[in-house]
Amino acid sequence: TLRSNSVDICGDFATSPPWPAPFPVDNAFQNRNVLARHRPPTCFKLLGWVQDNNGEWVWEEDDPVFLAAEAAAAASRDDPSADSSTPIDGSEALKYSASATPTLPSGSFRPKQSLGQNFLRDGNTVMKIVRAFGKDASETIKLKADGETMIEGEVPGIRLVELGPGPGALTDPLVETFGTDVLQCVEIDPRSVEMLSERHPNLRVRYEDVLQTDYPKLAEDEGGPLSVIGNLPYYITSQILFALADASHTGAVRSATVTMQYEVAERIVSLTKCKAYGILSVVFQLYADCTIHFKIPPTVFYPQPKVDSALVGLRFIGPNALRQRLAGVRPADLRRVLTATFQQRRKTVRNGLKKLALEICAGDKEAAKKMIDSSPLPLPKQIWEAKESGDSFAMSQELPKDWASKRPEELSPGQFVELTRLIFGPADDESGEQKTLGRKIW
Predict the structure, then answer these.
(1) How far is CA 400 from CA 73, 324, 363, 386, 396, in A?
(2) N or C, which end of the chain is more exposed by having fewer CB within 10 Å?
(3) Is the peptide bond before 165 cis (omega within 30 degrees of 0)?
(4) Taking Cα atoms as reference points, which of 353, 374, 355 lies closest to residue 363?
(5) What is the pLDDT along the chain (442 residues), one digit of tens a residue?
(6) How far, in Å, CA of 302 to CA of 122, rounded?
C-alpha cells in the first residue's frame, strides 16, 4: 500500500480485482487434507490464467484476433520518436486519429495477475483517451479572461507523466503527439521498461512503483505542474488517486486523465443522497473538477475484465483555490471527520462523530456532547463573498442547523468542510493564507 494511514478510509470505496482468484477461499479449504488433494501441479491453467515455472500467474495468449493484429502491426511499426517536435499545449492531441491495434510481443509479454494488468487493445479507444487527455491538460493551463494571456506565475506548457504504460498502447501516440522531451513514464514491470527503451531510445522511463512516486519532486525537476495519464490497475486505483490529491497541495499535479473501474468513477462524481456518495466524492469534488469522459467496455482490454471501466478527467483546482474553499480548515482534520462519519454511514452524523469528539475532548463526555450538539458556525467572510459571486461550491457550503441528525451522504463536500471547522476550528486564520496543506494526508 501507499502508506499505512490509507487503510482506514479504503473501506468506503475499495473494489475487488477484475480477475478471479486462483483458489476461492471457502470452508472446504480450511482442512489440510482437502487442501493437499487440491494442490496444483507445477504449471496449470485456471479460467485463462496460467501459472508459469516461477509461480507467477500470467494470462494465456489464446486470442487469435489479438495475435493476428499483433503480427500485422509488427511488420509495419514506425518509430514515432524520430520527430522531437514538442507542442506546448494539448491542441495536437485533439487532432489525433485512431492508429493500428495496440499489440504485445508474442509469447514474451503476457499480462501479470499480480500487477493487475489489463492492456488496452483497441485503437479507437486509445484515440479517445489521447484526445480527452489533450483537452484536460490544455484547459487546466490558467489563462486570463482573454483566453490567451497566462496568469502571472503560471508555468506554460505540458509536462506529461504516463503511469503504468505497459506495452505502450498509449505511449506510442503520446510520443507521436508530444515528443519525448516532455513525456516520461513510470513503470514497475521490467519487461515494459526494456521494451519501451528499445522502441523509443530518447523516452525517459522511470523504473519504480507508482505508489512511491514523488510528484512534487518530479514537478520541480520538470519545471512546472504535471499532467498525468494512465490506464490504472483496478486494485490500487484509490491509492494512486489520493497520492495525486496530496500532490495537488503543492500544485505539483495540474490534471489527471485516467481509466478506472466504472463503479469507482461513479463514486467520484456522485451527488449527495446517493448510495455511491462517499469519501471519494467529497475529496475529489473538493479538490478538482471531475468528469466521466466516457464508459469503456471490457472488450477493449486484454485480458477482458469482468466489469466496465471509465475514463475520468480530474482537473485539480490548485492550492490557492483549495485554500479558498477550506478557509483555514486543515485537510488532516477533514480526513478524520470523513473517516469517522463514513465508517458508520448508516448512522447519523452525531453518532458517527461520538468517538472522535471524545478523543478531541480528552474523554470529557460533557464537552464532547456539547460539541456535537452545537449550532453551525457562521460562514467565513471569504466563503460568503464567493457565495454572493455565484460560486457553485460555496453556495452549497453552509451547514444546516439539523446537521447532527443527517446521514453522511446528505452533506455536501463544502458542508463537510464547515463541519470540520465546527469540530476542530480553523488551523490558521480564516483568510486562507495557510503555510502548508500537508504532503501526505490522504
Answers:
(1) 60, 21, 27, 18, 10
(2) N
(3) no
(4) 355
(5) 333 344 334 444 444 444 444 434 344 334 434 333 444 444 455 556 566 666 666 656 544 444 554 454 444 444 444 344 444 455 555 555 555 566 666 566 776 766 667 888 899 999 999 999 999 998 888 765 555 665 666 677 899 999 999 889 999 999 999 999 999 999 998 889 999 999 999 999 999 999 999 999 999 999 999 999 999 999 899 999 999 999 999 999 999 999 999 999 999 999 999 999 999 999 999 999 999 999 999 999 988 889 999 999 999 999 999 999 999 999 999 999 999 999 998 999 999 999 999 999 999 999 999 999 999 999 999 999 999 999 999 999 999 999 999 999 999 999 999 999 999 987 655 444 556 788 889 8
(6) 10
Q: Where do the H-state alpha helices sit in 17-164? A: 32-37, 64-74, 123-139
Residue 343 three-state SS = coil
C-alpha cell at 139: 484547459
Residue type, 30: Q
| Burial annotation 345-383 (CB, 10 A radius, 16+ → b, else e) | beebbbebbbebbbebbeeeeeebeebbeeebeebbebb
**Among the listed residues 298, 303, 262, the one whose alpha carbon sits nearest the alpha carbon of residue 13:** 262
Grouping H, G, I as helix, E, B as strand and the rest as coil, residue 124 is: helix
Is the Cβ–Cβ distance between 277 and 270 less than 8 Å?
yes
Q: Where are the alpha helices (DSSP H) in 210-318?
A: 215-222, 237-247, 262-269, 279-287
User: Contact, 242 vs 283, CB < 8 A?
Assistant: yes
Residue from 268, 278, 266 nearest 314 by CA: 268
What residue has cell string 462524481?
A: 269
Report the amino acid identity of residue 217.
K
C-alpha–C-alpha distance, residues 6 and 1, integer Å:
8
User: Measured between alpha carbons, how far is 313 from 322 in angstroms, rounded to an integer?
Assistant: 18
Ramachandran class of 138: left when φ > 0, alpha when ψ lies in -120 to 50, beta otherwise: alpha
How many whole angstroms separate alpha carbon 314 and alpha carbon 244? Answer: 10
